[in-house]
Amino acid sequence: MDMSSEQLANAKSYVKKSDKIRFIESDIQSLQLDRKYDLVLAVSALLHILPGEIEQVAGRLVSLSKRQVINVDYYEDGPSRQLAPHNFMRRYEAIYQSLPSVEGVKRVPVGKKKAFSTLNAKQSLFHVLVAASDQ
């Protein structure tokens, strides 16, 4: 799922045609699905969600998952703040932990290694464990 038709076309070019893969053009707020998935993955997406909508969108990701959500996004220690007109730094651990169906959240910093040093990529992977349901 992506809201960009150009990105979906790019993704399709890397995948062999299959009945098991569906490409959906939508934003997360408008996405209409009637099932849950084993894993929900969001990469560099949530930093673009407006502050007044982030809890709802995080809850939507969790509601689509049977058990796990992986979110990779910009992160740095400190309070939530606006980085650019459409980019927001968030405290994702606190956002996910405030959701009643979340059992736990673990943050794993992402580092990029160069030849004799480590570059801080200012990204983290957030692994969200969703409470098991009867579905």
Written description of the protein model:
The chain folds into 2 domains: 1-30, no CATH class; 33-130, Vaccinia Virus protein VP39 (Rossmann fold). The strands form 2 sheets. It has a 4-stranded mixed sheet with strand order 1-2-6-5. A two-stranded antiparallel sheet has the order 3-4. The chain is α+β, with helices and mostly antiparallel strands. The protein is globular. The protein contains 3 helices and 6 strands; from the N terminus they run αβαβββαββ.
Number of domains: 2
Helix-strand sequence: HEHEEEHEE
Structural class: alpha+beta
CATH class of the largest domain: Alpha Beta
How is the secondary structure organized here?
Layout (H helix, E strand, L loop, with lengths): L4 H8 L24 E7 L10 H10 L1 E10 L6 E4 L2 E3 L2 H6 L4 E13 L2 E14 L5
Parallel strand pairs: 1-2
Antiparallel strand pairs: 2-6, 3-4, 5-6
